[in-house]
TrEMBL record:
GO terms for biological process: carbohydrate derivative metabolic process. PANTHER family: GLUCOKINASE, RPIR-FAMILY TRANSCRIPTIONAL REGULATOR. Residues 139-271 form the SIS domain. GO terms for molecular function: carbohydrate derivative binding; DNA binding; DNA-binding transcription factor activity. CDD domains: SIS_RpiR. Keywords: DNA-binding, Transcription, Transcription regulation. Residues 8-84 form the HTH rpiR-type domain. This is MurR/RpiR family transcriptional regulator.
Length: 299
């Protein structure tokens, strides 16, 4: 988004710009505002078909509003509406989207699993649009340079944070996953100091404790990376570097794309220190054998 259109309230921004748009572009914005969260998952071609304009008009509408393209406008509208949506509403909306996607599939071979997998694959392929390679490389450098990495992801983001932290410890020591329910998060942050890094995973609706942790990291002189759903999200505003994964209207929200993104970060770091990573994993295997933790499957 250009500086001209950098507004927190995307709805108000669209309304302010309404009179400056062409008649066909106004049809696009009216369709999006009136349809609200129910139409935010529509692809460009479907929006164009619904209101009787060319697909290029949909793209130019977003650009006229100051966005780089329609996906960026769509992401901001999605973030706006999702902030107000309850979990039950998200389930209903996600189910409706899934039904619409199924209807678009050819009759032969139509199946919910095929549709979901195709959707996930497309989201993975789209990820480089939102996470430029230079931004990804910068995140790797920051993770590598930090004295200690503190990882936080609460609610549905906790499994993502835990998985990332477990494997990051094998690549680089001095990694802590801030874990709810064992000890208060503030007490786990006691060692945080300048030169450290806070790595947050924070999607709508944004958990206040995660945002407060990011703010505290800055006050202590630590750098902050976030995986979040928009450049304008509360998490992005508190971060030195944002890795954007647009929020998806599914019951399970954002899972596969962030996992893939973090897998890439782990892979990049492990390639920098292949021998040290190998030695740590071999030591781990010895500990597993010492404690007889694993089975061969024949027991």
């Amino acid at each position: 988004m250009t500086g001209k259109a950098s507004k927190d309230d995307v709805i108000q921004w669209i309304r302010q710009q309404h009179e400056s748009l062409s008649p066909s572009q106004r049809k696009v914005t009216e369709f999006l505002l009136q349809g609200g969260i129910d139409v935010l998952h529509y692809p460009i071609a479907k929006i164009a078909s619904e209101i009787g304009v060319n697909a290029s008009t949909v793209v130019r509408t977003a650009q006229s509003l100051g966005y780089n393209g329609f996906p960026e406008l769509q992401s901001e509208l999605r973030r706006y509406f999702l902030r107000q949506a309850r979990l039950s509403q998200r389930l209903q909306i996600g189910s409706k989207q899934l039904i619409d996607d199924l209807k678009d599939e050819p009759d032969q071979g139509r199946h919910i699993l095929t549709t979901v997998l195709r959707d996930e694959m497309q989201n993975l392929l789209d990820l480089p649009q939102y996470v430029p390679l230079a931004v990804f490389d910068k995140a790797v450098d920051m993770l590598d340079d930090a004295n200690h990495v503190f990882i936080i992801g609460l609610g549905a983001s906790f499994p993502l944070a835990l998985n990332f932290g477990v494997y990051l410890r094998y690549v680089r020591p001095n990694t802590t996953v801030l874990t709810p329910g064992i000890d208060p998060i503030p007490s786990q942050l006691t060692p945080l100091t300048s030169g450290d890094l806070v790595f947050s995973i924070c999607f709508a609706r944004y958990t206040r404790e995660t945002l407060t942790t990011m703010e505290y990291g800055h006050r202590k002189g630590a750098q902050v990376i976030t995986i979040t759903d928009s450049d304008l999200s509360p998490a992005a505003k508190r971060a030195d570097l944002s890795l954007i994964v647009p929020y998806r209207l599914r019951l399970y929200g954002n899972m596969i794309a962030p996992f893939a993104l973090m897998d890439g970060l782990l892979g990049a770091l492990s390639l920098r220190y292949p021998e040290a990573t190998r030695q740590r994993l071999e030591s781990l295997e010895e500990l597993y054998e010492t404690f007889n933790l694993l089975t061969t499957g024949d027991d």
